[in-house]
Amino acid sequence: MVPLQLEGRTVVVTGAGQGQGAAEARLLAGAGARVIATDLAGTPAAWEVPRSSGELVYRQLDVSDASAWAALAAWIVGRGWQVDGLVNNAGITQRSRLLDASVTDLQKVYEVNVAGSLLGIQALAP
After folding, report:
1. 93-97-101 Cα angle (round to 5)
2. Superfamily of domain covering 10-124
3. What band does 62 get if pLDDT is binned at 50, 70 and 90?
4. pTM tops 0.85, yes or no
């Protein structure tokens, strides 16, 4: 397998506050990428990035909010960076039985899991 080499690349990872998203952010930074790790939570999980690695920057982001995506895109451009990759990892589940779920609950799942991915692609595409 060819090792991942991402020096000089900028990648946005959503849902990076913990679990799979945090692991993806660490992996990409370890391969040399500048990673903009985003999450709805205000405080990210503790990240350990290998010494010879890229940069890991945390930004709070609600993926279901188009204006939040626009603000993130403006923040990135304001630093003279361009986005080379987007990992749409953020997602939520409905924890109640389907028969007990409300339409509002299901709409929130759709807003995060489906619309959030689309909004990110639209906001960050060149």
Report:
1. 75
2. NAD(P)-binding Rossmann-like Domain (3.40.50.720)
3. very high
4. yes
